[in-house]
TrEMBL record:
This is Protein-export membrane protein SecF. Part of the Sec protein translocase complex. Interacts with the SecYEG preprotein conducting channel. SecDF uses the proton motive force (PMF) to complete protein translocation after the ATP-dependent function of SecA. Forms a complex with SecD. Part of the essential Sec protein translocation apparatus which comprises SecA, SecYEG and auxiliary proteins SecDF. Other proteins may also be involved. The chain crosses the membrane at residues 12-33, 129-149, 156-178, 184-205, 238-256, 262-288.
Length: 305
């Protein structure tokens, strides 16, 4: 018997997850999300400065107006060292007076510029695109259930999907509680997290399937079998998540403001994915299996009467 019984402490792992998910759901219902301009629309301003400026300089000016989360990037011939720096700023929808104040501050602190473009734009990700993304996610989950059920069994497929739902709820909860902005890159981060999490889960499930053959021959305990399978793959899981987290943390720390929210979502999601693969997915499979066995025994006892 393993010194630390993971399956025996299933209720603890479920409670730990609920401690994050339940406040997150409450936050989602009350204050919602801090939707970025990709979802809400905004203002685009494109400026050609007469002297060299950096994106950090522009962001510093916008920070005075609470607009430091705006998308700021070089455009045009910015890659050409001899060309005048052209900067495109996409911010939330600005009122006329606020826009003029921002433009005046940019000129005062960074020098003169020519206005190349100044317009209001709609959301790039409307309700229809969001619904399409949700349908695509639902379809992928159905395909995962079918594939995992074919390769393993139906209970494995259900456990995998519930673990993925757990990971997504964790990320959504953290972003709602912290009110970090959500933009189109957040959707890409969620899809990346789903791909990572299901891969790690399948590795453990594959080892459980292999050990099940010995289990039926020797009549071993199912909890011991799952614990053994988890510990046999634990080193791989730890190495994988550490490598991914180190890389993602480097992106978060050195990648600049434009990638912080994307990399933060990955950090939360990868950690949640590793946690769910070890402490959520496999225990859920044990719960489902025990429930099925209990129903089968009850049916057999009723038929024998």
């Amino acid at each position: 018997m393993h010194k630390f019984d993971i399956v025996k402490r299933t209720k603890i792992w479920f409670i730990l997850s609920l401690c994050v998910i339940l406040p997150g759901i409450f936050s989602m219902c009350t204050q919602g999300f801090n939707l970025g301009i990709d979802f809400t629309g905004g203002t685009i301003i494109e400026l050609r400065f007469q002297k060299e400026v950096t994106l950090a300089d522009v962001r510093g000016v916008l920070r005075e107006y609470g607009l430091d989360n705006s998308t700021i990037q070089f455009s045009g011939d910015a890659a050409n060292a001899e060309a005048a720096p052209t900067v495109m700023v996409r911010s939330v929808d600005l009122e006329e007076e606020e826009r003029k104040a921002v433009m005046a501050s940019l000129k005062q602190q960074l020098g003169d510029y020519d206005v190349l473009r100044e317009e209001k734009v709609g959301a790039t990700m409307g309700a229809e695109l969001i619904m399409n993304a949700l349908w695509a996610l639902a379809l992928s989950w159905v395909m995962i259930v079918l594939y995992v059920s074919y390769r393993f069994e139906f209970r494995f497929g259900i456990s995998s999907i519930l673990a993925l739902v757990h990971d997504i709820l964790i990320v959504l909860s953290v972003f709602s509680l912290t009110q970090r902005p959500i933009d189109s890159s957040f959707v890409a981060a969620l899809l990346t997290i789903v791909g990572y999490s299901i891969n790690d889960t399948i590795v453990i499930f594959d080892r459980i399937r292999e050990n099940l053959k010995l289990h039926f021959r020797r009549g071993g305990d199912i909890n011991e079998l799952v614990n053994t399978s988890i510990y046999q793959t634990l080193t791989r899981s730890i190495y994988t998540v550490c490598t991914v987290l180190f890389t993602t943390f480097a992106l978060y720390w050195f990648g600049g403001d434009t990638t912080k929210d994307f990399s933060f979502a990955l950090l939360v999601g990868f950690f949640a994915g590793c946690y769910s693969s070890i402490f959520i997915a496999s225990p859920i499979w044990v719960v489902l299996r025990n429930f099925s066995e209990k129903r089968r025994r009850a049916g057999s006892a009723a038929a024998a009467k």
